[in-house]
Amino acid sequence: MILQGANVVLGVTGGIAAYKAIDLCSKLVQAGAGVDVIMTEAATHFLTPLPFQTLSKRPVSIDQFQLLRDMDMAHIELSKKADVLVIAPATANTIAKLAHGLADNLLTSTALACTAPLVLAPAMDADMWAHPATQENVAHLTERGATIVGPEEGRLASGRMGRGRLAETNAVLGAIRQVLGRNGPLAGQRVLVTAGGTEEPLDPVRYISNRSSGKMGYALAEASRDAGALVTLVSAPTSLPAPFGVDIVHVRTASEMAQAVLGALQRTDVLIMSAAVADYRPAETAPQKIKKMPGDLTLTLTRTMDILAAVAERRQAGQAGLRLVVGFAAETQNVLANARDKLERKRLDMIVANDVSASASGFEVDTNQATLLTMSGQEALPLLAKTELAEVIVQRVAAMLGGA
Questions:
Q1: pLDDT by residue (tens digit) across 39-51?
Q2: Among 119, 158, 115, which Cα is nearest to 138's?
């Protein structure tokens, strides 16, 4: 986990969204990061330092001229130890100070002295966000390398609707993880991941699909991003939020997924096909809802395109820039035999095999127990959270590329 052992300096400024920073602090600590919190004086009007100190097990810094144990000034000590400086929420006032290099409080002084990456999660009224001064300040900070997360559309503290809400915690965490992983083992590699179960329409109301939740594919997209890759996620319909820092292409059918994948091969280094693509679709799609009639209904199904087979053909013909292709085999019997057969027939570099009939492994759950197979051998893995399995797969992909 990329956050394990990372030193995060979390700045909290004076806005109504400051209370959400408590959840961010908690999630960072749970992920294994060390968190030092700096609150502006304005932030203390909205909440006290106590929840941050309780969660981080570290003192909260507020005073610009606070002396620490080694007698270093607080802003110097904190700036030196930071792997990343995160400001959430970042008010319009603080953004303006950062853009113009002001250092009139502990947070802005730390930011000016800090050479670590800067992540900003703005939160303010919609008109303040849209004001040309704020937009210019954000543009200046972006040009200097800051990562901006949000703000999001929604109901604001004023009761109005508009863009200005603090980004959700998962989005801010995603930005932090991306920044920390910029120089990871897949830095510069272009990774395409497919996810979810395709839907093949029967009529305007019904479709044929499967139980895939997309969790494995989304975890792989995030793990690839955390390893420094430039990630495109081709996603069938899911209920999952889009991962931060990942280009997402939404598709519905197997045909649409095939078009998206095959159209991107020339600009893809690694393809990870974790989607559950329908093998069959209705031969005809009714233009209107099929009404219930007496007796049985007979459906005629026809084969969909075998995307991995098409990828293998193009790869062999030199029509793809791929360095590595990873497939998945979701099986209910003869798991390893079927997976190895698919590995060889589709000319894959690696295949991830799992028994989806097991209660803790496969569709709609957060865990998976898989075996990784290559042409030279196999590796049986224990039951892991899908996020952990994704990290293992990405590590193996990076190792294979290193030896390529």
A1: 999 999 999 999 9
A2: 119
Higher pLDDT, 65 or 289: 289
**190-287+298-402 has the same fold as 7-180:** yes
Q: Which of 170, 210, 338, 368 is catalytic?
A: 210
Q: Which CATH architecture has domain 7-180?
A: 3-Layer(aba) Sandwich (3.40)
pLDDT, tens only, 110-130: 999 999 999 999 999 999 999
| Cβ neighbours around 303 below 10 Å, total | 11
Provide the b/e sequence for 243-254 (b: ≥16 CB within 10 Å). bbbbeebebbbb
- What predicted TM-score, i.e. pTM, was given to this entire model? 0.90
How is domain 190-287+298-402 classified at the CATH fold level?
Rossmann fold (3.40.50)
- The burial class, CB within 10 Å (0-12 / 13-18 / 19+), for 400 is middle
Task: Report DSSP state, residue 190.
Answer: E
Sign of the alpha-carbon torsion through 337, 339, 342, 347: negative
The whole-angstrom separation of Cα 200 and Cα 314 is 25
Alpha-carbon gap, residue 163 to 126, rounded angstroms: 5
- The Cα–Cα gap between 189 and 210 comes to 31
The band of 55, judged by pLDDT with boundaries at 50, 70 and 90, is very high
Separation between Cα atoms, residue 345 and residue 307, nearest integer Å: 13
CA 103 to CA 116: how far, in whole Å? 17
Report pLDDT digits (tens) over 292-337: 888 898 899 999 999 999 999 888 877 667 899 999 988 888 888 9
Residue with the two structure tokens 């144990």? 69
Q: Where are the domains of the chain?
A: 7-180, 190-287+298-402
- Could you count the other beta carbons within 10 Å of the beta carbon of residue 30? 10
Q: Where are the alpha helices (DSSP H) in 191-243?
A: 215-226
183 catalytic? Reply is no
Q: What is the length of the chain?
A: 404
Q: Is 42 exposed, middle or buried (0-12, 13-18, 19+ CB in 10 A)?
A: middle
Dihedral of alpha carbons 62, 67, 69, 73, sign = positive
